[in-house]
Amino acid sequence: MNRPLIAPSELETLTAQFGPQPHQHATVIGDGWWEEVRRSLSRRRGEVLMVIQRPGGEILVHTKAFYPPEAYRLPTGGIGWEETAWAALYREIDEETGLPVRSAMWWGLITYTLYPSEGAQDRGIPFVSFVFYVRTEGEPRVADRAEQIADFRWVSPEALPEIARRLESLDAPWRGWGAFRAIGHRFVWEHHREQLLLSRIR
After folding, report:
1. Where is the Nudix hydrolase domain (predicted)?
2. Scanning 3, 36, 125, 195, which has its CA 20 to 30 A from the CA of 78?
3. Spatial contact of 53 and 134, defined as CB atoms under 8 Å apart
4. CA dist 134 → 20, 34, 172 (Å)
5. CA-to-CA distance for 164 and 178, rounded, in angstroms?
6. 3-state SS string over 104-157?
């Protein structure tokens, strides 16, 4: 795969509109989940990580029918190779939640190197999450049943560290996936907790 996951012009556009945002790089041992990510890169270059907040201050998490029990997380969605992250954000919010976007902001970038195992340092593959914050209202509904979303919950922003901890504690074969998913939750809490907590009292 020779195509870059991040177009410099896209970052320039987002930075011009929303200002400089944090960028974190992480390495993850993907275990069996690594192969799924590798295959997915033929159709998508990364994902949007969606921090969706309603007027009362709660943020949206979901779980899917095939996840382990209580494995709730922030919604994400793929970015096609010919699609901007901004366009993917609006498409994925509609497909996964059906919620209206009242306002949206870019909140940063997480890049990853994913390895299939501890001893396979020559087989790393890249991945990227564009983090977006969205203000909404109403209740979510699934527009695309293929997403297999089983349940939504509105939770306090303070729940993010505990959600990350639960994801990190998943057993095989979900261990690598849980470690990967936990990173985004810690990123949001570390870099944007003040904005999330202030938003609930406005």
Report:
1. 42-177
2. 195
3. yes
4. 18, 29, 33
5. 8
6. EEEEEEEEEEEECCCCCCCCCEEEEEEEEEEECCCCCCCCCHHHCEEEEEEECH
Pairing of strands 59-64, 149-155: antiparallel
- What distance in Å separates the CA atoms of residue 149 and residue 66, rounded to the nearest whole number? 9
CA distance 150 to 4: 34
Report the percentage of the chain scoring pLDDT > 70. 98
Cα radius of gyration (the chain)? 16
Say if residue 105's pLDDT is above 80: yes
> Could you tell me the domains of the chain?
23-190 (3.90.79.10)
